[in-house]
C-alpha cells in the first residue's frame, strides 16, 4: 500500500512537470520592433505624423510652449491622460485642480516620461507614444497589460528648477 502511494505521488509530480512549458526567454529588442510597428500602424490609421526621438519614442507637439526645455533634475508639472492603443484610458488627472509633478531622472515615472519631457518646454501640449520597454515592459500592472504601448496626451503646466 505504501509503495502504491509513493508511485502515485511520483506519477503526479512527473505529470505536473511534464505539463510545464519551458520558460520562454523575453527579447526586449524584438518586443521594441513589434511596438514600433504597432505605433507606426496607429499613426498611419489615424493620419498622424510624429517626430521620433533617438530612443524610438514618437511624439506630436500640438501646441509649442515657451522657454527652455525641461532637463535632468527639473520638476515638471503636468496634466495628462494615458491610454492604450485600443483607446482604453488607464489614468488621467485632467479635470482635477492639481497637476502631477515629477523630477526628471529620479525614476518616479515610467522611463518614457523621463525621456520625452526633456523634449518639451512650459506650455507644450503633446501626444507621446511610448514603446513598452520604456513603459511597464513585459510585466504590466493592474491596469496595463504586459508589453503595452502607452499613449499620453500631456500639457506641461510648469517647469521648476530649470536654471
UniProtKB/TrEMBL annotation:
State the InterPro entries in the record. PPIase_dom_sf (IPR046357), PPIase_FKBP_dom (IPR001179)
Keywords for this protein: Isomerase, Rotamase, Signal
Which molecular-function annotation in GO is an example for this chain? peptidyl-prolyl cis-trans isomerase activity
Catalysed reactions listed for this entry:
[protein]-peptidylproline (omega=180) = [protein]-peptidylproline (omega=0)
Task: Give the enzyme's EC designation.
Answer: 5.2.1.8
Which N-terminal stretch is annotated as signal sequence? 1-18
Question: Ranges for the PPIase FKBP-type domain?
Answer: 73-160
Cite the Pfam families for this sequence: FKBP_C (PF00254)
- The source's domain of life comes to Bacteria
User: Belongs to which family?
Assistant: Belongs to the FKBP-type PPIase family.
Name of the protein in question: Peptidyl-prolyl cis-trans isomerase
Organism per entry:
Roseivirga ehrenbergii (strain DSM 102268 / JCM 13514 / KCTC 12282 / NCIMB 14502 / KMM 6017)
